[in-house]
Design brief:
elongated, 67 residues
């Protein structure tokens, strides 16, 4: 499975655009981010591989993702 990433500055700019012109709230963006992570984990670790997953989150605003 491949995953495309963007840098912190581009992510910040995208968030700002989605909130200003897209009408998304921060809570909605966090929910979508969490759903995206869950989707990616499910692809590489389906329930048939076990039912436990450990998630580590660093400090800063990015730590809100498990929200």
């Amino acid at each position: 499975m491949s995953c495309e990433t963007i840098g912190a500055k581009a992510a910040f700019e995208l968030d700002q655009e989605l909130m200003s012109t897209g009408g998304f709230t921060l809570d909605q963006l966090m929910e979508l981010a969490g759903l995206s992570v869950a989707h990616a984990v499910y692809k590489v670790h389906p329930p048939s591989k076990g039912d436990r997953i450990l998630v580590f989150c660093g400090p800063g605003n990015n730590g809100i993702l498990p929200y």
